[in-house]
Amino acid sequence: FEGLRARAVISVVIFHFFSSLLPFGYLGVDVFFVLSGFLISLVLENKSNEMPTYTNFYFKRIYIFPLLLLIVLICSIYTV
């Protein structure tokens, strides 16, 4: 499914830059969201026996925070 999601993203990018080459490239957004929803449901079904907690949720996503701070800093400098 990851390959199909990648193709969907690439079709949208091609559509944005060269709309004449791929006239229905915008449909890649729909395909991407459908596949993502399907994959998320599979992951949640496989973890259905685990009880979700807030600490577990945030602990799994803490690695994104430094990159978020970097992007906010770059965007703040760029807009000034």
TrEMBL record:
Any one annotated GO CC term: membrane
GO annotation terms (biological process): polysaccharide biosynthetic process
UniProt cross-references to InterPro entries, sorted A to Z: Acyl_transf_3_dom, Acyltransferase_3
Record keyword Membrane present: yes
Transmembrane regions listed in the UniProt entry: 12-42, 62-79
Segments forming domain Acyltransferase: 2-75
One Pfam family of this chain: Acyl_transf_3
GO molecular function: acyltransferase activity, transferring groups other than amino-acyl groups
Protein keywords: Membrane, Transmembrane, Transmembrane helix
Keyword Cytoplasm attached: no
Annotated protein name in UniProt: Acyltransferase 3 domain-containing protein
